[in-house]
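Quick look at the format.
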Amino acid sequence: MKFSEYDLHPILTKNLENKGFEECTPIQEQCFEVILKNKDVAGLAQTGTGKTGAFVIPLVERVLRSRAEAEETLNRSAEAATESAEVAKGVNSQVRAFNDFKSNQFILVLVPTRELAEQVHTNVLDFAKGADINSAVIYGGASYEKQKKSLGQGATFVVATPGRLIDLYKEHLIDLGQVRAVVFDEADRMFDMGFKDDMRYLLQRIPKDRQFLVFSATLNFDVLNVAYEFGADPVEVNVSKDETKAENVEDRLFHISKDEKPKFLLSLLQKHQPRQAIVFSNFKRNIDRIAYFLSENGFKAQGISSLMSQAQRQRVMDQFRGEGGTN
């Protein structure tokens, strides 16, 4: 389905066109109408399937429609208000808008890592470009004062990792009572990383009538149980019950010994000559050793792990994204 078929707000439509977005991905197509109708969603989707757009785009649309409704209400005369509301029934601006969305209210997106927080934050800014929609990105390892300032200036979207957000909440720098929708992105990873208690802590302080969206690679019992416990009634969306990986991704499994891994990795890189590649390790203390090994064998490489500061990690990612940077 094409984005143009959803009759989105003109600002959002223009931003999608500028980014060259025409066709929805399967997860976007199945989520859009549900989210636009203010329903809760539990979505099964891997990274690379357009998952971020599946919740950012309709939430930006809902905020834009809310602003349009507020402006229309102010411009209508008291005598015409009732008649106009009756005529407007079923129109997208009213159906999609948050009911009485106030300037101090916001959408909260919770993510497990700093890098994902930056990615979602960037998507919000891209899709809301030209609108009066601000986004604050909150995570540990970055300037506390800068984050306090961004919250103080007002944010329509707050994209955060749980730990730093709770710190700011305890200092009374953010009012969780003003959350109109909450998104848990990669919720299964958040559980695996030990954020379950933090998620529960935050949900206990967020209004019960908020919209609840959760996205996960595996909709396990714990994730759904937390959703139901806190009053959510999610529509379950599974883009493929048999295959959850991203489109155009091919998996291969090689059974090799630990000692064979280095030379096997080199042979794969030499055979396929990728323009860029990412090598993952189960252990963060192996990262620098692997990067050194690759560099010594002709592949420009840098490591990135939680042992580095956020500034160091950001520099590595910037070089990786840039032309002629790290392989």
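Next, a different chain entirely:
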Amino acid sequence: MKKIVSLFLSLLLVVTLLPSVKVSADDISGIVLEKEMRAMVDQGIIKGYENGKYAPFENVSRGQFATFIARALSLSESTHRFTDVPVTSNLAAGINAAAEAGIVNGYSGGKFGPHDLVTREQMAIMIEKAMDYMMLAKTKGSLNFTDAATLTSSVSRNAIAYSVGLGIISGFPDGNSFAFKPKKNATRAEAAAFIYRLLEAQKKQEEEMTPDPGDETGKPYSVGRLDSAGNVTKIKSFATYDEALKSLTSAS
């Protein structure tokens, strides 16, 4: 009995002397958009800071959002074009690439305003331009937001409606409905959610358009996607040229 008690006390002492392992959550854990932001972090689209923080509630600048989009779409590098974006800036490559793809625009005088904050309305417009670059089929959703009347620009209304149609935008709870908050500065978490859902919409459309390998007989016309390296990935085949052309125009 003494031997058993002695052994127990020895094991207890060993366990007590072992260093404690502290498992700490990062600053994404538990936020509403954790799934979306964590997916973007895991894919290298959004990166953290040197202090190990991802700052999900920090406002997003134009330069940051352009960089996120460039990484998400694997955009090719482009020539330097904006006078207020130093060549040495770690955002320069993303800004130039997104501008080359027509997803972001500069200001007059050759400036970009890389540190200007992006509103949710502006972010929706850039997302729609990304849809066009990706050749996604666009469907307008209903603008049933409680603050829809504040959207006075037809460009904004269309961009937001297309994002609603693809499930990219849902809004903030506002009573029994939702508000979009177009003039609110977008956060890093919101940017992650918009881009994550954009990529999910692309996956869904590609899955829906993937042809049956055994159903290609008599369909000599094909529609595909051209990547930055010049490679073509066939998406769907059609029996006639008009059918193939119609599928392209419906995505414009």
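Residues 188-209 form the longest helix (22 residues).

See the schema section for token definitions.
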